[in-house]
Specification:
It contains 23 helices and 23 strands. With 621 residues, it is of the alpha/beta class. The chain folds into three domains: 10-163, Beta-Lactamase (2-Layer Sandwich); 186-336, Reverse transcriptase/Diguanylate cyclase domain (Alpha-Beta Plaits); 361-617, TIM Barrel. An eight-stranded mixed β-barrel has the order 13-14-16-17-18-19-20-21, surrounded by four helices. Strands 2-1-5-4-3 form a five-stranded antiparallel sheet. The protein has a five-stranded mixed sheet with strand order 7-8-6-11-12, with helices on both faces. A hairpin with a 5-residue loop joins strand 3 and strand 4. Helix 4 (68-79) packs parallel to helix 6 (144-176) and helix 9 packs antiparallel against helix 10. It binds ligand C2E and magnesium ion (2 copies). One magnesium ion (MG) binds next to strand 18.
Length: 621
């Protein structure tokens, strides 16, 4: 096909004898349209200049004298998006009547799905056509029966149309709504956020973003089940609605992340009050089915104001502030500052380095002895991970474990540490040094990892020699099948089960009843003040009594002095662990120390006991 010169194409709208009009239709109803363009012949026939016609509805082509049947037929065809031709009685803009053959052709824009009508008009010579009835394409004139048929059809179509409109409204609402909580979803938040930013650029109000992320929500979901997780999320959403105002936008961005977008108003004070309130509300445990679940939140706050060259940045800022709150102890809120920006870059770097470290298996086990309180001999060694960082040297867990947990790679770190144990124990065994037991730390995620039990079975380490320290046992109360199964398997194999960090809120008495551990480790925050503080002593004695009543042996963590050791022993602790007997050390250092001490790490005097504040030699009288 030869190319048509543009000069020729440009003449078509001017010189074409047929009137042509293009109208953009509403995508819900083909009969609702607005003219966007017309040619010269269209203006001559209708009397509407191009400027007049643009913006007019299609009904300017249908005069009051149009027969009812023709009218109904036109609407029917338009609603069905069907091409058709009719002869119409119309009126020019001036009111002068004219007859025309009107043809309508539906068009659609493949780019955006817009629907258009192309209308062509040929004015008929009234002298020749005066008595011609209106015709449809089929050439039949509508009689009474046809009119009735079309009236019914139109009623039906109108009803259908209303239904579709309602459906469309529901779909829009649903597509904006998070189905679980009824809050705005991420999509709606993004649309609103763009609008708020656009308004800000035009001098609209400054606004705050309050980014809320639940702490340790994943273990709730993994161990208590998705139902419990959903109920926590719904409770959180109710609370956020309650504490925010009508004008705020409250959205769930997905998972356990929520956001509030709030106009700043007079002062930033109401923002900090809101952040305070959210953190405070989240400190209260959730209760359902007689169970309680604690799940604090970390909150980040950032402000978008007119001074910012790129207010879009505020989302990343609020996220950074939230991460800062998490990194500084969780269950708190932080306001975004420039220093945090630098810190967030450091965290991103750490995350990247951790992935490489997992790949290169840069994690090594360190060992800290546990002492039998009665004999002073080593009873076990706790395996504590260290990262052999290529440039920074040995890093303790505090420097990387939280980020690894957030990245979901803690399982892999645990697996890497565990895989090295057998070889190290073999070195001890061949040198005939006695190390009765080793204890590994296991996160809730690792416990529910299906490969965990398999790894233990195939490790070559005798199960009787192994203790598994369960962290975050509070989440195991409502144990999922996988957790119960893992604990049963461990028990059956003869692995010792310990509940770690008892008293810190990560473990609970209810959890104990479920797990029935062999060992209970009292966190060092209760042990350390014991020497000065009578209440602490009382607390330790009570925890020890709870343990005893369950038939569980007690370990005191954080023994830093001789006084601690005697006190803990007298309070009923069976095993002692702390810097006083040795810091976590490499396998080789432990081997040397075992050789040197022959396993006797402490020489307790049988008649030593401790009264408030001082170690005294007991009276023999
Ligand atoms: P944890 O299991 O409660 O381990 C005891 C922590 O207390 C160790 O810190 C140990 O160095 C420290 N500690 C022991 N005695 C004393 C003392 O007398 N005074 C003081 N101030 N501290 C003492 P570390 O090695 O930094 O480990 C911290 C936590 O990281 C561990 O607490 C455990 O929850 C976690 N962790 C360590 N290794 C692993 C691992 O391989 N896997 C997993 N999932 N978690 C681990
Ligand atoms: Mg531990
Ligand atoms: Mg502990």
């Amino acid at each position: 096909m030869s190319v048509i010169p543009s000069q020729i194409l440009e003449q078509v709208p001017l010189k074409c004898a047929e009137g042509l009009g293009l109208a953009l239709a509403s995508d819900q109803d083909g009969a609702v349209m607005v003219f966007k363009w017309c040619n010269k012949a269209f203006s001559e026939t209708t009397g509407y200049s191009s400027d007049d016609a643009i913006g007019q509805r299609g009904k300017i082509l249908i005069g009051p004298d149009t027969e009812q049947g023709t009218h109904l037929l036109i609407i029917d065809k338009l609603m069905k998006w069907e091409r058709f031709s009719v002869i119409s009685n119309s009126n020019r803009k001036s009111g002068e009547p004219y007859r025309a053959r009107m043809s309508w052709t539906p068009l659609s824009d493949p780019e955006n799905g817009d629907r258009w009508w192309l209308c062509s008009l040929i004015e008929l010579d009234s002298a020749l056509e005066t008595s011609a009835p209106a015709r449809s394409d089929t050439g039949t004139a509508p009689d009474g029966a046809v009119v009735t048929k079309y009236s019914e059809e139109i009623l039906r179509l109108e009803k259908e149309n209303r239904r579709l409109n309602e459906l469309a409204r529901t779909v829009t609402k649903e597509s904006n709504e998070d189905p679980l909580t009824g809050l705005s979803n991420r999509r709606h938040f993004e649309v609103e956020f763009k609008a708020w930013v656009a308004a800000l650029r035009k001098g609209g109000p400054d606004f705050a973003l309050i980014y809320i992320d639940l702490d340790r929500f994943k273990p709730v979901n993994d161990t208590l089940g998705h139902d419990a997780g959903d109920r926590v999320l719904v409770s959180v959403s109710h609370m956020l609605r309650r504490v925010s105002s009508e004008t705020d936008l409250v959205a769930r961005l997905g998972g356990d992340e929520f956001i509030i977008m709030k106009p700043l108003g007079e002062s930033a004070l109401n923002i900090s009050a809101l952040a305070d309130r959210i953190v405070e509300e989240m400190r209260t445990p959730f209760t359902f089915d007689g169970k309680t679940v604690s799940c604090s939140a970390s909150v980040g706050v950032a402000i978008a104001d007119t001074k910012m060259s790129s207010p879009e940045q505020v989302i990343a800022d609020a996220d950074t502030a939230m991460y800062h709150a998490k990194a500084h102890g969780r269950g708190r809120w932080s306001f975004f500052t420039a220093e945090m920006h630098a810190e967030s870059i450091a965290t991103k770097r750490l995350a990247t380095e951790l992935l490489v470290a997992v790949d290169r298996r840069e994690f090594v086990p360190f060992f800290q002895p546990l002492i039998d309180a009665a004999t002073g001999r080593i009873s076990s060694a706790e395996v504590l991970v260290r990262w052999r960082h290529p440039s920074k040297g040995l890093l303790p867990p505090a420097e990387f474990l939280d980020v690894a947990a957030d990245m979901g790679i803690l399982n892999q770190v645990d697996e890497i540490v565990f895989s090295q144990l057998r070889e190290l124990l073999e070195v001890f065994d061949t040198s005939e040094i006695e190390l009765p037991k080793v204890a590994i730390n296991v996160s809730a995620g690792r416990l529910t990892d299906p490969t965990f039990i398999h790894d233990i079975r195939t490790s070559g380490i005798s199960p009787g020699r192994l203790t598994v320290e369960i962290l975050e046992s509070v989440y195991l109360e409502r144990m999922g099948d996988l957790v119960s199964w893992a604990i049963d398997e461990l028990n059956e194999m003869g692995v010792t089960i310990a509940v770690d960090d008892f008293g810190t809120g990560h473990a609970s008495v209810q959890g104990l009843l479920h797990i029935k551990p062999d060992l209970l480790k009292i966190d060092r925050q209760f042990i350390q003040p014991m020497v000065e503080n009578e209440t602490s002593r009382g607390l330790v004695a009570s925890i020890a009594a709870i343990g005893k009543s369950l038939g569980t042996k007690i370990v005191a963590e954080g023994i830093e002095s001789e006084a601690h050791a005697y006190l803990a022993r007298d309070m009923g602790c069976d095993h002692l662990q702390g810097f006083h007997f040795g810091r976590p050390m490499s396998a080789e250092d432990l081997r040397q120390k075992l050789i040197r001490t022959k396993g006797q790490f402490w020489h307790p005097a049988p008649d030593m006991s401790v009264t408030a504040g001082a170690v005294t030699r007991g009276s023999t009288a």
